Amino acid sequence: MQAMLRDTSNRRRIGRRIQGRQFCAEAGMTLLELIIACTILLILSSAALPIAKYSIVRQKEAELHRDLREMRDGIDRYKDAADRNQIRVEIGSEGYPPDLETLVKGVQLGASSDRKIRFLRKVPVDPMTGQGDWGLRAVQDEPDSTSWGGKNVFDIYSKSTGTALDGTKYSDW
Question: For the whole model, what pTM was predicted?
């Protein structure tokens, strides 16, 4: 009987040792899985960085397009109101606004009316330069001119010297 008890206690000891080794082997496998998962995440995140960078540039370009469109629309609406004699304009201005602030502050509607009409809520900040300074062109200026040589705003452009993702210059938009 004592021999039997010794035999069963030896079996228990051996069983515990085997279970301990299996536990260590499983823990090692988990560490290996963790290293592989971290490596895969590192590869995926390094691939996502350029995508995020271009996404930010595309967002700024879309904002620049929207701002230019909004300001050019304000200039066009000012010109239409001047052509229909709804607002008073200076002689020689050809119906274009003298500056961008005039579009924001508004002009008096009609000759004797107290009502003002505004064409822009505010002059937006250029997303490429981070400043509210825009390039202006007058009717007399060349289409690719970088200096404003007139008394009225015919067109507007970005003063950024950068190049867009499609290869064009921001100042040409």
Answer: 0.68
